[in-house]
Amino acid sequence: MTTANALPSLKAVMAGVAIFPADAPIWLGKIGDPVWPFYKEGDELYQGPSTSSIAWLDYIYGKGYTFEHVNSMHRGRYTYCLTSEIVSDLKVAAAIYAKFPRLVKHAKSAKEGVDPRTVKARTDELAKVFSSAIAISQARYGRTITKLSEISLGLLKEAIAQYPGRGAALKRALKLISDPVVQSNLSEPLRWQLVDIEKGSIPWPKTIDGPGIATLTDVHFLFIQDQCIQYILRFKAMLGLTIHCTDVPRKPEWIEEIDLDAYAEAVDAYLNNKVGASGLQARFGIGQRDLEAFICDAQNAAILLILLLTGMRSSETKFLYSDALDFNNGYWFLKSKVVKGRSKSAPVAEGWLAIDITRDAFDVLEYFCACTGNKYLFSSPFERFAKDGRGYALGSLNIKLCRWLERIDVGGVYADWTFSVHQCRETLVFQLAKQQVGLQFISMQLKHFHSRFYGMPNEVTASYGNYRKELMASVTSRMAEARETALQDLFGEDSRFAGGGGEAHKARTDAFFAGKAYFGAARERYIRNLANSGVKIQPTSIGSCTKNFALPVLDKEPPCYGDFECDPDCESHVITERAGQALVARHDRLLAKADAETNKAYKVIWIGQAEKIGRHINKLGLGGHHVD
């Protein structure tokens, strides 16, 4: 027998006689409450009271009413004007969808019910379209609507026709409330059926997808990567921590800028409460503000580099703990978990490949966690902020890292740019695709592997958290874009080349396009179509090989066949301007090696290699600068 304060039985819902008592539990609240919270403060996925709950009074009095969010009330894109009777019916539909999803056609069923965020998204769409229908009825026909049963199919079509949101999301929401099981439990039957929504001639708004989140340009990517690496390596060198990434030279100006030994003692004493803020100046000659800026530089750099080189979503960083680094099958991984499309109760078991510099970034953040006792890797390095044991709230990383980039960007590289965590994810895909890393690895790193090879995520999953943008600007489109960029570099009209085959390649391609009378935009279109056809180029360590390996080898296979150790002076080797950036980095590293070499015989080898690479850099006209 059902108790007074319990949800109705499955049998009652199926029979259409379900009663939802006001004190029946629903997530973290009760059916009769004006707010249905589903995450409480302190939960990893909590994003404030409005985002982490359904505020029913907002659908009557306007967005922001319940929690008195003035900005939400003034800037709201949609008008809400539902009645208490309509809200009661929406509560019934939401409760059935949340707790009895197997009874609803097209619903994603799960043992614990539908994700509360999905229920909220459905309810938001219904509140928007029904509010629009109420407004149309009053303005055009002078009729006041107080119940859902008073909305005709014709009026609903009018509201749908002028709906400013995504048609696909709205259709899913209307399918929910039009479902026979849901309808039978509403206060009164609706004046349309599920078949009207599925097969009727309804003018659904088109779902227009933008180009997605723009990736960082090469200049931005290289700048941010270099800045992060230098701050991380400086901090680890200062503390005497083991540096895993030994391929990147540390900048000599570190020693000139600051006294690393003094900062090492000050950081240890300050973070471990051996000396207070007031005693820093007297004991170490360093003020609190300067020391905290030094610490924050290392912390922000470590966070940003992990985001940039793992491609984690914001929600995934919330489950990144101080013991996340794991060695498995010969590789290092950062362990967290995917929440999108999976149960919130899933264990921390997913792994994001961590290269050496990512491990260095992890070590820096782990050090701060050891000082504060906070288990969250992305958390404040200062005990006064980390004492509650929480990590950074979702959304706060964007603000934090934007401010840091603004501070360190003395050259104005980021003057007209706004950072977002998701842009790191998009940029990682783009950079990996440009290097022709396989789709399987990219999908695995982004944690799409569990779903992308079985079917694309549905429209509802894509309707929140900016996932729609990620979906439409997905791995495959990024790879196509990267292919086009690579081909434009190789066949573009104004491209410059180095390498032993550079001059011959330039003459050959220009003659080909001249023979077809393809110049300017026509040449670009041809290259774009070539990229879309899936054509591939043969990459080398720093360029491209133009040798046609499909032709039979007349004498013997070249010594480079099957590896990437190509001779830059080979007659088949072409180095583009973009690939030349690798040469600049190699050239700088060789000179640094030569400077550090004490054996004169070895020093000559480093200098000789630097001079050889320098000849190619001069052909490209790069000098010491990166190209965009």
Automatic annotation (TrEMBL):
Coiled coil, from the record: none
Signal peptide: none
Domain Tyr recombinase: 250-477
Keywords recorded for this protein, A-Z: DNA recombination
Keyword set includes Ligase: no
Matching InterPro entries: DNA_brk_join_enz, Integrase-like_cat_sf, Integrase_catalytic
Keyword presence, Transmembrane: no
Protein name: Tyr recombinase domain-containing protein
